[in-house]
Here is the input.
Amino acid sequence: MKTVIDILRAKGDEVYTVEPQVSVFDALKKMAEYDIGALVVMEAGRVVGIFSERDYARRMILKDRSSRDTLVRKVMTEHVITVDPATTIEVCMDLMTYRHIRHLPVIENNRLIGIISIGDILKAVLLGHVHLIVYRENCICA
Here is the structure.
């Protein structure tokens, strides 16, 4: 059964972060620069939130706030659901589906070591299905 650590090994463990006192505008520039949909919000070495495109759409645009004048801390999601490296892909899928989230920071020994997205999960599931199909085809043909 595949786990979060398997996904991180395949995709890498690079995580882009932002501090809560940064402007939303600067956070958006960073997200655009790295072509990512969310930033983990860190303060004093610990995860204090997550700022995503969804947060921007719902808490900035719909409330007619200025991204240059608003701090990330005002619009980030504060209650962050995290997983550890041993969490299975199936558990991650359940969390993401039922909690309506697209990103899961990965924490090990109270330290942020990566982040996985719904896209990473889907890729891992599809790859698993491809491997299973190839395996079964080889068994049939052998």
